[in-house]
Request: fold
Amino acid sequence: MRRRSLLQVGIAGTVLLAAAGLGLSLTTPAWQGGRLSPAAKEVIDAVSRAVLQGVLPEDPAARATALLAQLGRIEDTIGGFPKSVQDELALLLGLLTTVPGRLGLAGLTTAWAQASTEEVQSMLQSLRISSLDLRQQTYQALRDLSYAAYYADRSAWASLGYAGPTDI
Amino acid sequence: MSRFPDPILEGLARGWKVYGGRHAARPAQLQCDVAIVGTGAGAGITAELLTAAGLDVVLVEEGPLKSSSDFRQLESEAYPDLYQESAGRKTADKAINILQGRCVGGSTTVNWTSSFRTPSATLAFWREHFALPDLSDEALFPWFLQAEQRLSIGPWLAPPNENNELLRKGALRLGIAAAAIQRNVKGCWNLGSCGMGCPTNAKQSMLVTTLPVALDRGARLLVETRVQRLDVAKGKVTGLVAVGVQRDGTAAPGTEVYIRARHVVVAGGAINSPALLMRSALPDPHGRLGARTFLHPVVISSAIFDHTVAGWNGAPQTLYTDHFLELDPIDGPIGYKLEAPPIHPIIFSSTATGFGPELAADLHDMPRTHALLALLRDGFHAQSAGGQVKLKSDGSPLLDYPLTPFVMDGARRAFLSMAELQFAAGAQRVRLAHDLAQPYTNWAQAKAAIAGLPMKPLLTRVASAHVMGGCGMAGQPQLGVVRPDGRHWQVDNLSVHDGSLFPTSIGANPQLSIYGLVNKLATQLARELSGRDVRLA
Reply:
């Protein structure tokens, strides 16, 4: 498939092709009724730990609270997109929750819930500089979603030195 | 909650006829003289002029009616409420992120107030290549002047914020001219939150200027309502099929509205307007519809300084340089304009590159961060033909915009220019929005590294806040979608009045180009439909 025609399919089509190539049928929706499935939450949690390392609170209890809140913010952020975009993200997360998807697309050999922060970071780095559009798109979707959700909440602003809205 | 008066709440209390969302239930059928699709720059100007001529106008807006009481300077509320696709609209290959308004007032409600007349070189190109002899500086002068007076567009007299001052400082050291950007504000509080909706009503957007005037004159406004298609028979639009939209953009069951109008003005913004004409299967004998959609592709460079910049504070984009637009002829290597955008947490972190500890240091340095953007002037060269609007299976638009090597060559030169300027201004460290760029600590290092960066889409982070073209204006039917008077070449009672008219990009922030050109077109349309001469208040 030539690059342009591959691109015209869009990420949803590409994910479907990837899923078909891996012999997968995505039967469990990763995103339904505005909520992530338990398996999708494991993906998001692992990605959040890796992406947000260095900006998450250092205190273990505060960190755990922040990571839990991050899952809710990710759901809010995804819920703000139009349905066609939500469907694309659901497809992508669904693929990542499967073992062949985790291995084939992400290149992560350890299960999401067991993977160390370093393993997930090195997986993200290989997606980031991959020569395959789908892998780069996957990296950017996961990364951008993580930061957009995290900094949606004022509790995260102090570490940026950002005071928030001006009182008028 | 803002303590400021809210002109929209006051208007609603006066009895404005607003339907949809939290307002009155949508009627199943409507009849009017002119239906206007959209409420942004072109729609607002058109609505004021047509209602001044006594015409009965219905406006249809896909987004919600939000106003100063709702504008709490929060990105987390503004992006999902006020922007297309929650400020995450992407091109087909996901390589360009597009910021475009989706609310009453359209992009004028959320833009950064930068106001430029259409550059002379752009108009000259249109006259020569698109058979538009009437679009000269002289001919457009009165139309721009009226729009500027109507929208309080003028010099910004407050000192620039530090983020902009650094642009001037670097440019001065390099011997490059930097100039002030005119703004459409009245009594601006210099908060810097323009992109989240103006909480003080100082920004003279369509939301607080032309639309209230039209609504006071009896215009009807449908919000959270999308025009799905135009019905066309025998070369004329006979009606508009609209439907209420839910928060996720899908049609709300049982909310269909049928609108009959003598004339239809499509002004939903580029990408959206051509998509509506495509959904309506309008004639397109020369294959021009949705083609030549331009974005001013933007690349970004941030720089850390030894002092507080606080790029979220104060008016954004008050200084610019066109030095790199003027180095070559307009149809030569792609040129670019440099400006200093606002820096808020979500937009900053999600347009930066990298993650984890690598990015954490930059994020902690946000108060000392200055950012420049380069907007590339696309559309003036055979290898910069822009993008093509397509339809997804649900009928929503998707822009396929290939970032050609010609365009990406400009992106490389823009990275070089921005880094050089930032080091000249005293930057300690420069970070480009490119996934293979390392932090650079001096100009020589940056210069060598940028020369070797692979300028590929996706690896290079590209954004856009200016969507133009797709229903191009031309003096001959084979060159465009609409005629020089803004009417569709094949469908006579249909006009296009928004940024999708432009045959190329503008080469400057486009809002005033839309106001000026549409002022001309809508004044003529008002005369043709009503026999009356009108002008902006």
Observations:
- Confidence is low (pLDDT under 50) at residues 1-9 of chain A.
- DSSP finds seven helices and two strands in chain A.
